[in-house]
Amino acid sequence: MTRKDRWLLWIFLAPSLGLIGLFLYWPMVGTVIESFYATSFISPNPEFVGFDGYREVFSDRDFDDVFWNSIAWTLGVVVFQNMLGFLAAMLLNQGLPFRGVTRALVLMPFVLPGVVTAILWRFMYDPQLGLVNSLMIRTGLASETSAWLANPDTAMAAVIFVAVWKGFPFSMLIYLAALQTVDRSQLEAATLDGAGPLRRLWDVTLPAIRHVILVNVVLTLILTFNYFDIVWVMTRGGPQQATHIFPTKIYETGFGQFRFGEAATYGVVSILVLAVLVALYVIVQAGANRRGRRT
Amino acid sequence: MMAAVELRDLHKTFGAYTALERLNLEIEDGEFLVLLGPSGCGKSTTMRLIAGLEEPSSGDILIGGKRVNDTPPRDRDLAMVFQNYALYPHMTVAENIGYPLKVARVPRTARADRVRAAAAKVEMAHLLDRRPGELSGGQRQRVALARAIVRTPRLFLMDEPLSNLDAKLRTVMRAELRHLQKELATTTIYVTHDQVEAMTLADRIVILNDARIQQIGTPKEVYERPANTFVAGFIGGPPMTLIPGTVTADRFTHETGALDLPGQPDGPAIIGARPEDIRVTAPGAGDLDGTVFSSELLGDATLLTVRVGPALVAVKVGPDDGRDMDAPVGLSLDRAKLHVFDGQTGQRRD
Ligand SMILES: Nc1ncnc2c1ncn2[C@@H]1O[C@H](COP(=O)(O)OP(=O)(O)O)[C@@H](O)[C@H]1O
Ligand SMILES: [Mg+2]
Questions:
Q1: Which one of A64, B116, B118, B201 has the minimum C-beta count within 10 Å?
Q2: CATH number of domain containing A166
């Protein structure tokens, strides 16, 4: 390509690049700008406050709650979803009977809409009508019913459980596909070398799919951090903020209390967190691609 | 440590498909036995059954006189070399070779010594820190071999270990394998579909086709006295010419002529002649007449392919005896080396 061709290329590309940039990034830029203004229902005219909004938000106890809730929520869901997904994939990969049917059944929670899932589990957790309580009492795991979602000590665990229930089939699918790429003769060689199932998992399977696991974990970190519907429909961030995470807090502050400036501040913080996660994803994915080319 | 292997009525089905039909075989201690046959005939299945990677549908496997059907693979004390080498890509050469020792909890220093010794045997001692991805095909092959010998097992299983190498390297590795096996004197079962490999490596060859043993014998035996038309056509390159016809009153009649064949019962028969057992004569003076299809100089000989009726007959002649294409020639078969097979069953007669 000559120098002139390259110029032409950019000229032709410019309009579409501009549009894409506008589409993708204008909302984010808007959010950042918004976060420097104080806007509320009472004073609809935005007033420039600079970093005052941030100072206020950061010194508020709510922010600490939301921040730590988000971490607990994200880590809890990601760890359990991936572990459960991996275990399920290992089981399915063993060649269970009725594999097709089993796989379809396990996928059910994943295809259920989030709002439906949330409503379903609100019933399940209901102290009077819920299946969870009656099951726990019948099996002797609990002696009296509890209001899982109304108790600040159990609400977070309860929503994490639902998110894991809904999310693990997704991880399972990815892990199952990865497990099927593991070289069979390597596993057999290890068997003949004397390695038992756990050793084979550790020495052959896990190294072979290490990058898939990394990519999948980072991907679920991003998706989980952004999760909204299940938490909002089940608890609205309550009780007493016990399950408020960034998306629910932003929604409530912005559209419940019309404090757009404050909502935008939370938004900017969550964009920063996500930027870090996305950077991690890009790095991990690049590593996986490099490896893919080598082998 | 005695490691004779015995297979008794070994049978294997996959669903309705029979991969191995009641196989009986005895392998002597220290022997280099080659399982030879076309793709899909059940060679790998036999090997995987011995290794314990598959379970027999019926029949017994004995190693060192002990029935091992219910012994898990790791306790059968054997090592296998896979066609694709099956090296662990994230481990170095040293870690790959030492893996069986690591699993067996051999202490680190003893392990390092044995890894070095095994690597030296296959001339890989200078590449211990590389990873398999950084090695050539031949080098990977050597690592796989070293991983097999490091444990000094009582039995080696090798499933087409050379088939991923280029022709030249294959010849080199073949010689090295043969040497190594004699040096270690470890019973070896070797699978290949390449008859040259089988002929050059084996103490004895087992020829398999369609899940059944066709013949067991030394390379010389299977070459000189093939048990049936399958073996006759499979062993030797270029293959033996097989001519179907009918015997009537000591005369064999085929599509394009006839020749004397005393001492054979009347009825359909197939005669076979190896390329080196056929002589070129003037047209009309031999047993068969045809025209030259191609003439290839091999260096120490010339390979003539002669079209006889619809068939192509391979003939080996001297390096200076090449012919022009389409030249008419006669072919005379060396009676003393003629192979005669039953026309119906394809089994060797005599
Ligand atoms: N796990 C299996 N399931 C079904 N069929 C199999 C399996 N393994 C091998 N076979 C079949 O058994 C036959 C023999 O296979 P194999 O022993 O691998 O042949 P080869 O002589 O080429 O090594 C083939 O037709 C193959 O398709
Ligand atoms: Mg095979």
A1: A64
A2: 1.10.3720.10
Residue nearest atom 6 of ligand 1, based on CA coordinates = B14
Best to test chain A binding among B75, B88, B92 (most A CBs inside 10 Å): B88
Structural domain including A160 reads: 31-294
Task: Give me the residue label for tokens 């090296």.
Answer: B87
CA B269/CA B346 separation, integer angstroms: 8
Within a domain: A221: yes
How would you list the strands of the sheet with B328-333, edge to edge?
Answer: B278-281, B328-333, B288-297, B302-308, B311-317
Is the CB of B42 within 6 Å of ligand 1? yes
CATH number for domain B239-342, candidates 2.40.50.140, 3.10.20.90, 3.40.630.30, 2.60.40.10: 2.40.50.140
- CB-based contact B82 A188, cutoff 8 Å: yes
Instruction: Judge whether A53 lies within some domain.
Output: yes
CA of B39 to the centre of ligand 2 (A): 7
Domain boundaries, chain B: 5-233, 239-342
Could you identify the atom of ligand 1 that is nearest to the CA of residue B46? Answer: 17
A6 touches chain B (CB under 8 A): no
For residues A241 and A156, give the distance between their C-alpha atoms in angstroms, rounded to a whole number. Answer: 10
Q: What is the pTM of this model?
A: 0.82
B34 pLDDT band (50/70/90 cuts)?
very high
Label the pairing between strands B288-297 and B302-308. Answer: antiparallel
The tokens for A254 are 């912005």
Separation in Å, CA of B90 to nearest CA in chain A? 7
Q: Write out chain A's pLDDT in tens, 295 residues.
A: 677 788 888 888 888 888 888 888 888 888 888 888 877 666 667 777 777 777 877 888 888 888 999 999 999 999 999 999 999 999 888 877 777 787 788 888 888 888 898 888 888 888 777 788 778 888 877 777 777 778 888 889 889 999 999 999 999 999 999 999 999 999 999 999 999 999 999 999 999 999 899 889 988 999 999 888 888 888 887 788 888 888 888 898 888 887 777 788 888 888 888 889 888 888 888 877 776 555 4
Which amino acid does the sequence have at B280?
A: V
CATH number of the structural domain B5-233: 3.40.50.300
SS in 3 state form for A55-95?
A: HHHHHCHHHHHHHHHHHHHHHHHHHHHHHHHHHHHHHHHCC
Q: Has residue A16 been placed in a domain?
A: no
**Domains contained in chain A, number:** 1
C-alpha B176: how far from its chain's center?
17
Q: State whether residue A62 sits within 8 Å of chain B by CB.
A: no
B241-248/B251-254 β-pairing: antiparallel
Q: Is the CB of B45 under 6 A from ligand 1?
A: yes
Residue A25: inside a domain: no
